[in-house]
Amino acid sequence: MLEAILSRAWRTMPISALLLLLPVSIVVANSQGAPATPLPADGQWWKGVIEVPGRPLLFSIEFRPGSENQKPLAFINIPIQGAKDLPLENVVYSDQSLGFAIPAPANAVFKLQRSNAGVASGTMEQHGMTFSVSMEITTKEGTGDLLPPRPQTPVPPFPYEAKDVHYVNTADNTNLAGTLTIPSGSGKHPAVLLISGSGAQDRDETIFGHKLFFVLADHLTRRGIAVLRVDDRGVGGSSGSTMNSTSEDLAGDVAAGMDFLKKQSEVDGKRIALLGHSEGGVIAPLVASRGANVACIVSMAGSVLPGDKLLNAQLEAALRAAGSREDWIEEHSRIHRRLLSLVTSDSSEDSIRASLRELITHELSASGTAPEQGKVDALVDQQYRFVASPWMRWFLKHDPRASWAKVTCPSLVLIGSLDFQVPPRENLAALKDTMLKTSNRDVTSVELQGLNHLFQTARTGLLQEYQSIEETIAPQALARISDWLCEQLDVKTSSAGLAE
């Protein structure tokens, strides 16, 4: 299964790889019969690790005393996934063992025994696989090392103004909140509006602790370009729902953002660019194709292939990179193509559910264990809600080539050579073929060597590297983007003061 089937995030991996990465897929069993142990009045923090091969998953648990004669409360944090204070059920805290659970449809079971007052260890079982787990008591401050360092995240003081802003997409009265950074110096500045990838993203497009848009905004503002970055629908200060919206709705949000920028006294309304990452790289040409007076656009890993073809390409690339057998890949891809065909043709719920069941069963069979019916049922329910969502149906049917054929402004299209979510060869070829049929010759496409979907310097490009790489965006990508934008937007300031 693909990321787009499993999560609105941009992540792309088969089910067997993703189950251990999704917050909702962690269930921890309680220990029956263990005597309760009083918790400190101010609660207690633990941190732990699940030893998933090649990508240990770090987490923390906060235990809090319950009300009189009630079990303790517990909350889990998984920073690598952006999961914060998720409530747990069936909480047991004793001298001998620990227990807690996240509700279904999760299907992972933890069994932990305490060897002394501050340490617990055991195993986690999920879909026939077993992994070692260990936990130790810490402090709230001690949970701050669950993520590798992110040295590119900007820190104040900043040599520019940053202010919180709000505006409305009047098409459906969605309130949008963001941050506008304005270069120092008087006069009107060119501006860039950042468009995030799929999923409910915050204004910094925080992914695995990396704040891609914060780094980009800081870099570009230091170069003399105002930058607007915005919370997606249903995130932070923005209203609405990402899942119940389509990319068409999000394009309306972008148009509203451009209107807002044109009204700002510090912004030159004739020099506004769009920069989109992943799905944002699909929305940018969609908006530009409608004559929105876009000065230029940058697409970072934006797909050019139609949605259904992209997901098929993603699947095969990810499975081959994971070392799956070719015969297994062929069969899995066949089932997957049929599922997407049913969704795009608006087939019945029963037929889509039957295809989902076949795909999930085939995926789970890779573990060598017959999947339990209850687990399959839960996954079918979970994934049907996603594949039948307005966003997914629109995405699968949309052909970005139609937008690109109408784009007349200068454009820069970047894809990393190690991008398994937007495979560079197929997508850049589709862009070239499309633009040859138009009069727009001011389109530059570049395959950046050694970079992944997040534009990090990577070894394999696979998802499990994203969290362990300290770099947020490779310097070569930042330089390519800012140099091109400064040229297109006629920015006169030099980069001498640019922070390294």
Q: Catalogue the unreliable spans.
A: 1-35, 494-500
Q: What's the arrangement of strands in the largest beta sheet?
A: 4-3-2-1-9-8-7-6-5
Q: How widely separated are the two ends?
A: 39 Å
Share of helix, binned: 25-40%
The major sheet is characterized as:
9 strands, antiparallel
Tell me the β content. Answer: 25-35%
Number of strands: 19
Shape: globular
Structural class: alpha+beta
The pLDDT mean sits at 85
Number of helices: 14
The Rg value, from CA coordinates, equals 24 Å
Describe the structure in brief.
This protein is of the alpha+beta class and about 500 residues long. Helix content is about 30%, strand content about 25%.
Please specify the SSE layout and strand pairing:
Elements (H helix, E strand, L loop, with lengths): L2 H4 L8 H4 L25 E7 L6 E8 L8 E6 L4 E5 L1 E5 L3 E5 L6 E9 L2 E8 L2 E10 L21 E10 L4 E10 L5 E7 L10 E2 L2 E2 H11 L3 E5 L16 H16 L4 E11 L2 H9 L7 E5 L6 H15 L4 H19 L4 H16 L8 H15 L2 H8 L2 H5 L6 E6 L7 H12 L7 E6 L14 H6 L6 H14 L12
Helix pairs in contact: 4-5, 6-7, 7-8, 8-9
Tag the structure with descriptive keywords:
single chain; 500 residues; alpha+beta; eight-stranded mixed beta sheet; disordered N terminus
Structural account:
The protein has helices at 3-6, 15-18, 212-222, 247-262, 280-288, 307-321, 326-344, 349-364, 373-387, 390-397, 400-404, 424-435, 463-468, 475-488, and strands at 44-50, 57-64, 73-78, 83-87, 89-93, 97-101, 108-116, 119-126, 129-138, 160-169, 174-183, 189-195, 206-207, 210-211, 226-230, 267-277, 296-300, 411-416, 443-448. With 500 residues, it is of the alpha+beta class. The protein has a nine-stranded antiparallel sheet with strand order 4-3-2-1-9-8-7-6-5, with no helix packed on it. Strands 10-11-15-12-16-17-18-19 form an eight-stranded mixed sheet, sandwiched between helices. β18 (411-416), α12 and β19 (443-448) form a beta-alpha-beta unit. It is globular and about 70 Å long. The relative contact order is 0.13.
